[in-house]
Input
Amino acid sequence: MSGTSIAYPRFLKLLNDSIAAGAVAKVTHMELKQHFGRTLESLWEKHVSAHYFYGQGIQGTTPQDLLDFYYGDNTALHRVEATLRRVNACGVQHPAVDAMRQVLTEFVPIAQRLAALKECIVKRHVKSQEERNAEQRFVPTPATPAATMHVWDVLMKVTARNERQVVECIAADCAKRIDIFMSASPTMREKLVRNYENRMAVQASVVPNRSPQGEYFLKSDFKAELVALARKDVTELRDSFIFKVVSKIAPIVEAKGNLASVTEVSNTIHVGRLSGTLVVEFADGSRFLVDNNVVYSSSVRNKAFVRFPLTFHNVILADGSRMKQPSEERMHSIFCAAGELAQVALADEAECEGEEIGSRPGC
Output
């Protein structure tokens, strides 16, 4: 049952390894409790609450004794064994009781192992300076404002052309959320507005009616309100998108020092995703392609956030050779370093030519 969680096998292995080692860091113990606690809550809601208790009013089919038992107990990971004993002793024959027993039985060994680990909490190993230096991620030197202006202008033009399409996509998505909300039952509406995107769309376009039935009415200008909400989201999205791309490209452009052009290769629009490819060329013949996009993701707690993956492709050095595995760190350590060596060689050559001219008769 718990195998439906993508992270479940990884945390289960971490739990078993910690038991075998007889030691666990406090932060790891907290992560284990939080993950398995959320998993228990999710499975309890999916297999017990949603099927047998949500929306059970006077006309519900769930027995009143079982309703009293359900609402009188708080399911939590540290109380799994006690709750299971109460379920086995409740004396009610119902599919909901079987579902409760199945979920709780699966988490009994996990709860027991987590309780045993409380006696095995140790301080984390203090890493030496060499170990910290080895694990330190590469952080490029920030570029000066002058070095970022050309890249910034190009990205502003690229995103401006697609802004209208993105606004239309987001506004259409908000309209679908409103349609679902208006046709839902009062109980389902309460669940829908827990989602941030649903709540923002409802607040922008729906007015509650102060009646016992809890009815809602659409605003007369709800379409304009949804478009305004979409424009606000797109502006925030574009600013974050440009900032991330500039922070990656501008330090390379500044370190390289002989930028020739930054042009758009292609730009395609997808629902909920803005992507584009730029080619950056330099005066010494070196160049690279950078693919950048915005991707919507959701956390394990169903909280929406955006990612800005940026990758380098077709990296050509000044001598015409192709650089393999173009990570951000290698772009600085190899691509920019090759450019610096080429500039030094050109400066030395120019200096030698000047000395030869100065040594000629009549000079």
Residues 167 and 342 are 46 Å apart (CA to CA).
